Amino acid sequence: MFKAKINPSLIIHFLSIVISFESLFMFLAVFISALNHESITQKLLLSSVFAFVLGLLLNILTKNQRHSEPSRKESFFIVSISWFMLGLIGTIPYLVTGTIPNFVNAFFESISGFTTTGSSILADIESLPKSILFWRAETHWIGGMGIIVLVVAVMPFLNINGIYLFYSEISSVTDEKISTKIRYAARNMWLVYIGLTFIEIVFLLIGKMSLFDSVCHAFATVATGGFSTKNDSIAGFSPYIQYIITLFMLLSGINFSLHVILLKGKFRTVIKNEELRLYLFIILVIGATITGLLYFEQHLKLEQAFRDSVFQVVSVLTATGFATADYLKWPEQATLLIALLMLIGASSGSTGGGVKVIRHLISLKKIRHSFKTLIKPNVVNVIRYNGSAVQSEYISGVLAFVILYYLILMVSTLIMMSFGQDAATSFGASATCMGGIGPGFGTVGPVSNFLHLPDGAKYFLTILMVIGRLEIYSVLIIFTRTFWRL
Questions:
Q1: pLDDT of amino acid 158
Q2: pLDDT of residue 52
Q3: What is the pLDDT of residues 272-291, one digit of tens each?
Q4: Which residues bind K(+) (predicted)?
Q5: What is the band of 178 on the pLDDT scale with cuts at 50, 70, 90?
């Protein structure tokens, strides 16, 4: 039960920390602008200073909360509001520079970045100043692991444990215990996150991608975001670059706790992980199937069919959203498989979105368990995951989440249709925004954008992005009677 009432000052204090961190990242965009002698440098500097002063002022006004620990109830508020606050402050560079002068479009782009969705309203990305392209990439990188996890990682310096914040941000389906203390777990995840980013930058540089493009694409890849610096996404880059990005999308879609466990030398534990096995199995089977369809029906060369297929399969499954081909022009069977991948999602504890592989795995185990019980009702059958028995309460929670996810998706599709969109576009926009994928179907496919959608639809989709990013409950629980009564 929630034992504490809502403390507005404490919530504002944590928001001030979030805003301050965001302003520091914004200063990096100022540096890029100055380095390239752009005319918008001063405007970006003012944006950064404004965000920093706002965060500092709010922090000073709530300094009496610096050593307070948020309750679980307050944590849900902090996590949910933080993402909208990130998106709101993130619009400032777009608005003041005139690169995205319309607020709703700027807000959509900003929320899409921080939630690592990757859906965009921009038609000519390459016309943007490098500093704005860098800021778009930064929003991905900040949101990838979660600004809240970053805050938790530095909580020891503020004498705050932050345990409830961590559990509100990180998927609770992860069963591997990385550390006995939450702050060390957050710190370990960030080290892996930073390490993958740096290694990918090096490999992209080897492929003769420019330093600027390498950094931006590494930010977007490891965060499974999908914002590219090019109009044609990754299609114009060499096969080597495409394979490298495929590899790092795949790695970023794996539970980050497994990366940490692997670094500790526990290889056997990693390879025995059932979620990882199913994750790789899905990529292998669907990738091979689509490769065959492209090779035999569209008569592509085998290597290109394999490369386009695996790239797109990994991109959609991990909810990254990069593209090397227009999958809407593929055979219908391949397009349907892509739609299926949108509903599956990446691994728990990764930067990817969607329902998550582990929830589908537990659901399948429950279905098999039900059949066994029907055949042999007197035999005790236990559902196990990684060799351990799964509690019935957990299974019920997984099934409830899956049902709720698809129910929200269905209702969202109907709402999008009420905005005058066709069924394919409505489903595609809802699925891709809720799953944090990027491109969808219909008029929001991989070679299109979201600019043409009505303003109301854009606002609705930004809400859907945050709901999906925070795995539904953290946001929706605030609107329940039970939340306010306890």
A1: 42
A2: 96
A3: 999 999 999 999 999 999 99
A4: 116-117, 225, 320
A5: very low
Is 425 marked as binding a ligand? no
Is it the case that residue 257 has pLDDT exceeding 60?
A: yes
Report yes or no: 8 and 78 within 8 Å, Cβ to Cβ.
no
